[in-house]
Amino acid sequence: MLYISQNVQLADWEIDLSFIRAQGAGGQNVNKVASAVHLRFDINRSTLPAFYKERLLKMNDQRISKEGVVVIKAQQFRTQEKNRDDALERLRELILKAGVRQKVRRPTKPSKSAQRKRLDKKTQRGQTKQLRGKIDL
Questions:
Q1: CA neighbours within 13 Å on the CB side: how many for 104?
Q2: Distances (CA, A) of 112 to 79, 116, 118, 124, 125
Q3: Domains in the chain, please, with CATH?
Q4: Which has the closest alpha carbon to 78: 46, 36, 116, 45?
Q5: Residue 83's closest CA among 41, 38, 42, 40?
Q6: Residue 119 CB: number of other CB atoms within 10 A?
Q7: Region labeled Disordered — which residues (predicted)?
Q8: How would you write the pLDDT of the chain (137 residues) with one tens digit per residue?
């Protein structure tokens, strides 16, 4: 059971874990032991609340396929248990990230005094640069 929050948890049958051989360097052990983890999580089949499902499917994340399947590959650690925990934690963080609502951006415009100050500074800067020029006698 993976606990996302107090109200939301995922059952073991919703998360498909398969163990594969890790890529890259690692000596003799890497060719014999399946320590990397492939985690697959189908968003549409899950028991997540509709709010989380919608937000996950709308996310622009390379780990989420068009069919709504989250695929996470964990191979950072040498042991299967640590890689499994890492993959589950990354899934948990992804779901939590989908649950956070972003603040609505309201467009603002500068005040009249701020506009006036900016134009005054520009004029002053232009005069300073003009004084640096050659002097006509």
A1: 1
A2: 63, 6, 10, 18, 20
A3: 2-99 (3.30.160.20)
A4: 36
A5: 38
A6: 10
A7: 102-137
A8: 787 877 887 887 888 888 888 777 666 666 677 888 888 988 888 888 888 888 888 888 888 888 888 899 988 888 889 999 999 999 999 888 888 888 899 999 999 999 999 999 999 999 999 889 887 77
